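Long-time lurker, first post. I've been practising inverse folding by hand and with some scripts of my own, and I keep getting stuck on stretches where the structure tokens seem ambiguous. Below is the full token string for one chain I'm working on. Before anyone asks, I'm not after the true native sequence, just a reasonable design that respects the backbone. If someone could post their per-position residues I'd love to compare against what I wrote down in my notebook.
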């Protein structure tokens, strides 16, 4: 199977299961708590490993106990963690507040991922990959570097996830100028409706059209329970419905949607509707168990291409 390298966030998730998701100025009670490995780059790599691919992560952790938890959490899925480097300070983390119906709120912090920079060993690994994935949560300098490598042909294919609104990324992740460059160069550009509105001030379907016209070869704009809009080549965006399931936890559903799109659309060149259905199945399955990697799809779980 294909070789894929993901670049960006590998973090420690602090998960609080709440009596309710609080409103502004409201409150809630913690019913349960756990720590586990997370992060967009790490989650996508694990999803691709479960689908049979040779996956590796490039990231940075701290010099604390959390670092070992993060690294071992990806190795458990057979992901190569040799390019997850340790550095001074605390590892980056997320606080995940999960409600009784599976919905969640996420707050991120920590300096280890924002301090990530590509080294020569990373570049060698990237040059051998069939697909490189990164997200807007990776440092701007790193994403700009990857976009330039794709533009010059140093890497074969680039998948990019605009995973948060611009206000969340400021001072932490990718700048609007770099997002523009990624939209023009990406072989797959994924975003959600909130991030799309923040970046383009457009609703999901026209946002998919705009991103495709900008230059991205494949575009997906997710809309949660309402599915996603996909646009490939010169096609009009199509709507792919979400798959109904018994939701336990929606954390990581978007990451598994992206992993399955890379698997089916970028690597296997399925038509957009088929790729979207495969990705929707993978996302739904992951919602049926706690955590961003609670029920990762394998090839036998997904529809035939």
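-- Answer (accepted) --
I ran through it position by position. Result:
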């Amino acid at each position: 199977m294909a070789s894929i390298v993901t670049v960006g966030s590998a973090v420690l998730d602090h998960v609080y299961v709440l009596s309710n998701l609080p409103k502004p100025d409201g409150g809630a009670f913690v019913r349960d708590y756990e720590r586990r490995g997370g992060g967009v780059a790490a989650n996508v790599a694990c999803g691709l490993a479960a689908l049979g691919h040779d996956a590796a992560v490039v990231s940075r952790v701290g010099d604390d106990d959390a670092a070992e938890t993060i690294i071992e959490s990806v190795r458990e899925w057979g992901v190569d963690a040799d390019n997850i480097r340790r550095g001074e300070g605390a590892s980056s983390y997320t606080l995940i507040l999960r409600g009784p119906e599976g919905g969640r709120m996420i707050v991120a912090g920590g300096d280890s991922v924002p301090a990530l920079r590509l080294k020569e060993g990373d570049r060698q690994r990237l040059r051998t990959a069939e697909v490189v994935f990164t997200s807007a949560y990776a440092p701007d300098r790193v994403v700009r570097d990857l976009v330039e490598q794709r533009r010059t042909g140093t890497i074969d294919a680039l998948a990019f996830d605009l995973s948060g609104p611009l206000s969340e990324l400021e001072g932490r992740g990718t700048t609007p100028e770099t997002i523009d460059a990624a939209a023009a160069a990406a072989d797959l550009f994924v975003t959600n409706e909130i991030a799309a509105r923040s970046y383009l001030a457009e609703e999901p379907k026209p946002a998919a059209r705009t991103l495709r016209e900008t230059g991205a070869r494949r575009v997906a704009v997710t809309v949660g329970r309402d599915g996603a809009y996909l646009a490939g080549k010169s096609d009009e965006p199509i709507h792919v419905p979400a798959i109904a399931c018994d939701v336990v936890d929606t954390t990581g559903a978007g990451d598994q949607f992206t992993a399955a799109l890379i698997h089916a659309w970028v690597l296997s060149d399925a038509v957009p509707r088929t790729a979207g259905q495969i990705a929707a199945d993978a996302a739904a399955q992951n919602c049926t168990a706690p955590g961003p990697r609670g029920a990762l799809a394998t090839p036998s779980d997904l529809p035939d291409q």
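A couple of notes from the structure itself: The chain has a mean pLDDT of 94. The first helix runs from residue 40 to 50. Happy to go over any region you disagree with.
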